[in-house]
Amino acid sequence: MSANAHGPSEALKGLVRRQYFWGIVAIALLLLVNLVKDPGYLAVSIGQSGNLAGNVIDILRAAAPIILIAVGMCLVVSTGGIDLSVGSVMAVAGAVSMEFLNGASDTVGSGLAAVGLVVIVSAALGAVNGVLVSVVGLQPFISTLVIMLAGRGLAKVITGGQNTTATNETFRWIANGYVLGLPVVFLLALLLALLMGLLVRRSALGLMLEAIGMDAKAARLAGVNRRALLFTVYILGGVLAGFAGVFATASVMTVDVSRTGYQLELDAILAVVIGGTSLAGGKFNITGAVVGAILIATLDKTVVFLGVSSSATPAFKAVVIVVLCLLQSERVRRMFRQRRAAGAARPAEREVVAA
Amino acid sequence: MTATRPVVEMSAITVEFSGVRVLDDVDLTLYPGEVHALMGENGAGKSTLIGALAGTVPIRSGEVRIEGEERTPAGVARSRAEGIATVFQETHLSPHLTVAENVMIGNEVRGTFGIDWKANRARAAEVLARLGLDDLDPRSPLSALSPAVKQLVAVARALVLEPRVLILDEPTSSLDAAEVHTLLRVVRGLRDHGVAVLFVSHFIEQVFDVADRMTVLRGGRFVGEFPADELDRAELISKMIGEDIDALKALRSERLAHHYCASGEPTLRASELGRRGTLDPTDIELSRGEIVGLAGLNGSGRSELARLMGGAERADSGEIWMDGVRVQLRSPGAALRRRVALSTENLRDEGIIRGLTARENIVLALQAMRGWSRPLSAGERAGLVETYLDTLHLSPDDIDRPVEELSGGTQQKVLLARLLATRPHVLILDEPTRGIDIGAKLDIQRRVARLAGEGVAVVFISSQMEEVVRLSDRIVVLKDREKIGELSNGPGVTVDTIVEMIAADLDGESEELFGHDCDTGLVSVKQFTLNCSR
């Protein structure tokens, strides 16, 4: 009982019981596989000016945009909804910022202005989702599917169908810069995820979202304002996707209107599920979503590193995720528990076998 | 009867949920051709024992013998194959399927080309007819039916199997008198055909009406097994709960002693409040410190009036005034901000949120009132929970468990605590005591009486009219979607008074006779009685 006596072991047990535990295991396993292929895989070198470099750092950098959209998706999913538009919102964010910077001078001010512009535009797109879902009452799947299709079209209109390129050192720094030796993108993503975590758990937002996700009718009778909450959540999801769009375009300072954020909504949904949030809505887990996002990034990098042929890449990814979902499923977990209980009940038998 | 071999023998059954022992060494024996009542308060372990027999609840230790053969791996399919059919308390039906599909699901009649829908409908209709539902179209969607008919459809689903053992868990809680009568007749018919019926109900009269023997549980333990005719009601109740029966009587006299007469501006006044197809325009006044009972049969408009006042449904006519100010109660949230709190009759759908813990459920309404950006501090939350642990006799162990794991009575208390946390001026309780045990009922009724004492205007609805009579200062009687009169409660008012009033009402003319003048309350009743005999 006492936390002091079994502190570390209790904490470990708590971790094992978490849904995202297997996500962490999977990340470790993938890294291990890479390590077997190349013993120097995990090496982190310190480059000039103290910046860390290496495969792990690359993974963290790649995980940043996925972390952001996964956190946003996590909140939307907890209300029983889904947001398919995040990938397209990323493209729009990239298009808006590149178009703006293309015509602006290379100053800190215009870099920040571009980010501000992205926040406004992506919040607006999120608001459209929010209105369609909460006021009009369309199904989230359909509403966000509409924005998913319209968004990419909008991005193409903004850039005139071009893959616009721009130069702005401040904007570029977001993706390629380092603070304390770590990539800025990853730190920013973690910071935003942490802020969102604090926002939902320190305020009552998390409780309200879970309430409407679990039982919208009962929540209404308890006086919960579902409409305003849904509206808020889709805007948050939009803004986070906007930041992810900035991350994705800033590294190359080019927006590829048909590739930026393409199918990333699916990665986000996977990350959320790996993190232990049910697509049926209700209880959600932001830490889990972050773990899921890092796993997806690790998986992507591993596929490339192992040289799996590009045509087989999706299948490889699918296998890993199916195994993971199986391990997490209640039925398999119960099977493990029973086996463990049975094993503990028959120690004598085991000894006989061992002998 | 005892000479025959029992069809079910459960002995020394023990069940644990996450380390908590909910059944401890319980026995149950069912013989073919008997109706066996399983009695106990909420949380006594009735539903768990049923689950253990039906195969939905894993047994930790103990033995289940079916026709003398020991059953080891329990499971729903297994118990079905053994001829055990269960109608659970929450009807597990699919609202989007038709009646016939619901009845036949899992047991479809198949022809050469797959499912033979015509034969299925015919078979469904045949079973439904046995339940007195011969005029129900098997093709109609389930969602169109009233809760009572749904309940009967659930029974029909079980009957399709022609079971040897039929388990009925609270089958009558949403039925009216005629439907109960039909159901009990079917139960007797099945018994005469050799079926063993396990009957669970909170309605003691029904139990004595139909049961041959009963098994009593208390707090997860076996109290005893008795032939129904060797036990009288008071004995049974004392076996179930111990000593609380006198407390109920005391509550009634206490309420009468403090009978409250309202004066001054009413807390809530509704005039011509109505909604087409739901409730005809109705006037009602609620005053500080007064308990107003709404009495009437199922579908009389009592729940509808409650929903209109609580903002759950939008009125299309009439006005609501609170303390002399006109207000709009467009949603339950708006009503709560105006200090009108409503608990609806659907505890499961519109009450508690099952996946959240009791603590979160209690905090929810107050938090929603404040908005999510201004969270209650840990201290405030603890204070709230502390308050209700005490006054509602909630167990501290329950408070951090998901509400779905708690008994019905506890869930109802959690819901009441949620509403009270918003410090309502008007508290509307629709069936707060349905399907819960006498102990919890008493807790809730006492609490309601105390709230009125503290100045809350309470609306109390119950299909058990003696509860309404016991608690109310004033009783508003409804029939066929309209108010037919009001009674000032007093020693002369009984359930019969209300029943006669409903029975005597022909076209709403009698309303004038029941002016709710406090001083003449009793006199009006006499006038009414006169009216009746005339």
From TrEMBL, chain A:
It comes from the Bacteria. Its main location: membrane. Keywords: Cell membrane, Membrane, Sugar transport, Transmembrane, Transmembrane helix, Transport. One of its GO terms (cellular component) is plasma membrane. One of its GO terms (molecular function) is transmembrane transporter activity. It is found in: Cell membrane. InterPro entries: ABC_transp_permease. CDD domains: TM_PBP1_transp_AraH_like. The chain crosses the membrane at residues 20-36, 56-78, 84-101, 178-200, 231-257, 269-297, 303-327. It is a multi-pass membrane protein. It holds the Pfam family BPD_transp_2. This is ABC transporter permease. It comes from Glycomyces lechevalierae.
From TrEMBL, chain B:
One of its GO terms (molecular function) is ATP hydrolysis activity. Gene3D superfamilies: P-loop containing nucleotide triphosphate hydrolases. Residues 8-244, 251-505 form the ABC transporter domain. InterPro entries: AAA+_ATPase, ABC_carbohydrate_import_ATPase, ABC_transporter-like_ATP-bd, P-loop_NTPase. It comes from the Bacteria. SUPFAM superfamilies: P-loop containing nucleoside triphosphate hydrolases. Pfam families: ABC_tran. Keywords: ATP-binding, Nucleotide-binding, Repeat, Sugar transport, Transport. PROSITE patterns: ABC_TRANSPORTER_2. This is Simple sugar transport system ATP-binding protein. It comes from Glycomyces lechevalierae.
